[in-house]
């Protein structure tokens, strides 16, 4: 199977720097009596080439963690860095450029363009960055997710699992330093979900940094590390846990 090599460390970062680091992150939505603290003093560093699962009950701050870490949302206070680059120091224009070139996204709903072919969907991030996708790199991304023979198909001609793999290929086309996945198996059946998780595991084994938000203890077992959130704070972590270990810890969060 064709391999997509991960992007080498950028000029503004050292190989030893964490892929993503959050320092004393606080995120508050709203103001006054209606304000809600989504993240409260979160500090964590995610190593390069690691596969991290973010878990916690509803309202624990999982989505806010992902949005802040990926530069989709700015924290109320604290700092976020991708490599050695601190996102809070970037203008909106430079932050948008960073997201396009150095960060990949995979969402539960696939978010494919129905009027575009698989090849066109995969190459879309490059076109948005005003770069013309080369056939070889589009095919390499498709081959990487096992869809090299489906380049001329449309999303409606694919299964849910295949659509999610197209979404992963689209995220990989820019050779991102970090791949963020928000409930990537939430809309899939067990078989297709497992295939997507195995692909993410394979990517991490090849050196791609993966950060995944999930509610599924079985999905979390594919990760190297599980970070548990409760009430916007880190409530613990587990290394290479079983599904039973994760389920037990989730059941006792807040005790």
Mean pLDDT across the residues is 91
Q: CA-to-CA gap between the ends?
A: 47 Å
Indicate the percent of residues in helices. Answer: 25-40%
CATH hierarchy, class: Alpha Beta
> Strand count, sense and closure of the main sheet?
6 strands, mixed
Subunit organisation of the chains:
single chain
Uncertain spans: none
- State the shape: globular
The arrangement of helices and strands along the chain is EEEHEEHEHHHEHEHEEH
H/I helix tally:
8
The CATH homologous superfamily name equals P-loop containing nucleotide triphosphate hydrolases
- In the CATH classification, which architecture applies? 3-Layer(aba) Sandwich
Number of domains: 1
CATH topology: Rossmann fold
Q: Going across the major beta sheet, what is the strand order?
A: 6-7-8-3-9-10
Rounded Rg? 18 Å
Structural class by sheet pairing and helices:
alpha/beta
Strand content: 15-25%
